[in-house]
User: Which sequence fits this backbone?
């Protein structure tokens, strides 16, 4: 596995070659990944996998024309051919008045923060196997569990480097550890499946594998013998594992790229009080050991913590260079890069602040409602905000969680839904996007 210095050197060499061949400007991004994982099923080793990959992407500019290309061949001959192809593509590309590198005076030039993203401790396959086995054993020990889809454990290591012809050159390393379990409860036509999964930058931050397995077993058993609900407009409470998707739709609609395409239901509402005043949605890209922490964005701008929603309003649009120029808005440090291509837009480590009441108190006055633990389908229109998804979970009867339900549809409009959001006080921070239990009144629910 290469280090960040080697990755940066490759990026700078590729940029220098493209400039010598006639590019007006260029940037290069390199990513290297290595991972290994172990799967256990019914107490026996199912698989051991290891993968490694390295790729570098080059973006060149010739006036207002640009092109991107990537390769996993790092020989000098491959770099020369890559640069030649990129320039040939750029010469025939259409002009884009918004394309370009981030201005030099906006590039991150400070000292790299210590985000502690890399766990250097060794984790041999034997240790991964033990974690997977413990998780599955705990899940299978839950009364009512009848079969297993398996337990898993994995470790990964990644290196990211970005360099530009305007002088930016930085990189960093990260690691990841994960444990999962998935089991089946019941038999025959009664069978139900559920799972639990946790990941962290450092292995020490993971729960005990037995906790993960036991939770997977409890979830599967709790879903046995589902019923349905009466159709109508009722309060819907979203479990934290699915409630984050609501915030995810809001973030997608706040993307400058979506706004520039006129593909956001928030257009025209950016100055309105859309949320209850107490709701705050925050972003912290500098969170130590955070799952999506990063010191700089995909164009070399410094990443900074901020409130994305506060005092009932969104802060504005999240932009990269292109969308900022198209919308005549400032760059916000939200550019995101993959292995190649132009930057997209993405936030880092987002969470909704906890509310003031417990989940039990949040549901206490609901005589008839729905507690959602699973969502299905893609019935979300980010242009209009119309929302309709399949769901399963539990009935809420007189303020208490009652029996399981399945084959339900929940529908509404995202603008109405975010106005009605009420969070509980049970926020946990371990995902890239975290929310507490949230309640939304007035949604349309249809049973089977």
Assistant:
């Amino acid at each position: 596995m290469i280090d960040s210095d080697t990755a940066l050197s490759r990026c700078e060499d590729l940029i220098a070659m493209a400039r010598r061949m006639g590019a007006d400007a260029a940037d290069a991004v390199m990513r290297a990944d290595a991972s290994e994982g172990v799967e256990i099923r019914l107490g026996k080793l199912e698989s051991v996998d290891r993968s490694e990959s390295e790729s570098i992407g080059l973006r060149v500019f010739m006036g207002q024309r640009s092109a991107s290309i990537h390769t996993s061949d790092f020989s000098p001959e491959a770099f020369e051919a890559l640069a030649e192809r990129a320039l040939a593509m750029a010469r025939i590309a259409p002009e884009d008045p918004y394309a370009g590198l981030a201005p030099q005076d906006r590039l991150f030039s400070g000292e790299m923060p210590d985000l502690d993203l890399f766990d250097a401790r060794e984790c041999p396959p034997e240790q991964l196997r033990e974690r997977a086995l413990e998780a599955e054993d705990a899940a299978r020990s839950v009364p009512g569990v009848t079969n297993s889809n398996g337990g898993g454990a994995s470790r990964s290591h990644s290196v990211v480097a970005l360099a530009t012809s305007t002088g930016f050159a930085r990189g960093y390393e990260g690691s990841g550890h994960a444990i999962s379990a998935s089991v089946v409860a019941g038999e025959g036509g009664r069978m139900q499946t559920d799972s639990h999964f946790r990941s962290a930058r450092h292995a020490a931050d993971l729960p005990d594998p037995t906790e993960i397995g036991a939770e997977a077993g409890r979830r599967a058993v709790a879903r046995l013998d589902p019923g349905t609900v009466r159709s109508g407009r009722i309060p819907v409470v979203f479990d934290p594992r699915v409630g984050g998707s609501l915030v995810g739709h809001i973030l997608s609609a706040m993307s400058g790229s979506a706004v520039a395409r006129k593909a956001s239901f928030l257009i025209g509402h950016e100055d309105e009080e859309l949320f209850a005043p107490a709701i705050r949605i925050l972003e912290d890209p500098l969170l130590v050991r955070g799952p999506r922490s990063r010191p700089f964005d995909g164009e070399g701008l410094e990443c900074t913590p901020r409130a994305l929603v506060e005092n009932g309003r969104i802060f504005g649009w999240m932009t990269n260079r292109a969308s900022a120029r198209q919308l005549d808005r400032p760059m916000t440090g939200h550019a995101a890069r993959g292995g190649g291509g132009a930057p997209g837009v993405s936030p880092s480590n987002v969470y909704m602040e906890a509310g003031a009441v417990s989940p039990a108190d949040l549901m206490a006055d609901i005589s008839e409602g729905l507690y959602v633990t699973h969502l299905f389908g893609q019935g979300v229109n980010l242009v209009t905000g119309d929302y309709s998804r399949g769901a399963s979970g539990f009935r809420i009867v007189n303020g208490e969680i009652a029996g399981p339900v399945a084959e339900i549809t929940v529908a509404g409009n995202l603008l109405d839904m975010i106005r009605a959001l009420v969070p509980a006080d049970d926020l946990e921070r371990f995902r890239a996007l975290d929310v507490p239990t949230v309640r939304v009144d007035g949604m349309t629910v249809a049973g089977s």
